[in-house]
Amino acid sequence: MAATGQKMCLLLHLLIFSWYIFTIWSNCSLQTSDKHPGVRSYGGRWKYLTFINLVLQAVFFGWCVFVDAVHMLVPVKHTRSGTPLTLTKARDFYFTALAFPVGTFVFASFWSLYTYDRELVYPKMLDEIIPVWLNHAMHTVIMPLLLLQMFLQSHTYPSRTRGISALALFSALYLSWVLWVHHASGIWVYPIMAHLSPVGLCVFLGGASLSMAPLYLLGEKLSLMMWSTTGNHQKKKKK
Predict the structure, then answer these.
(1) Where is the signal peptide (predicted)?
(2) pTM score, two decimals?
(3) I need a surface site. Which of 55, 74, 106, 237 has the fewest CB within 10 A?
């Protein structure tokens, strides 16, 4: 990668990382309301996948800043892409197995439910607590930023077994956390869960978890489409 391109990546990653830090700070600075205790209830902000995703994205882009800086400043053994091998592998695995599919899920699931009936996921009373720009920062902007990252740098996908297994583990841990929050406090993280029968709840949670795998494959397909003609995209393992 040319020096100008390296500096551009570092600058963009620094800007995106700063944006996520600002968004998290803004989220944590919100005034709570008695109408919607939300973050004051059991589990705080950490029971919401939206907040967890913000932290995931901030950590990822912070790691990108670190990798870019190491590449520019430290003369170490380089890979074909120009970045130290172990750092590149960690960056690529994090992006492909977590950052892209989880971020895409938050974007797609939130706006799908919001369009169908916003009360099921984002009650209207939240408009009095969360500014419109912050809602879009948490649920909309994540998607174009992920696509920008995919365009900026080629990411070598791990084997599908490793990648989807890591994503499945994340999904299982979050699902267990949601169920534990309900068991410990009697509250459901999202309003839609309170409207479902036990069978409906199983179908909903199971469907949400299973939808992660297609999103992983979507990222793999988009990455291949973007980079297959450049000669920079390494062949991915399929097993």
Answers:
(1) 1-26
(2) 0.88
(3) 74
Query: Do the domain assignments include residue 237?
Result: no
Residues sharing a CB contact under 8 Å with residue 193, sequence separation 6 or more, in sequence order? 178, 182, 201, 204
pLDDT in tens, the chain (239 residues): 555 578 889 999 999 999 999 999 999 988 766 556 667 788 889 999 999 999 999 999 999 999 999 888 876 555 444 556 788 899 999 999 999 999 999 999 999 999 999 998 898 988 888 999 999 999 999 999 999 999 999 999 999 999 999 999 999 999 999 999 999 999 899 889 988 899 999 999 989 888 999 999 999 999 999 888 654 444 444 44
Task: Name the residue range of residue 204's domain.
Answer: 3-227
Residue 220 lies in a domain: yes
Whether residue 181 contacts residue 42, with contact meaning beta carbons closer than 8 Å, is answered with: yes
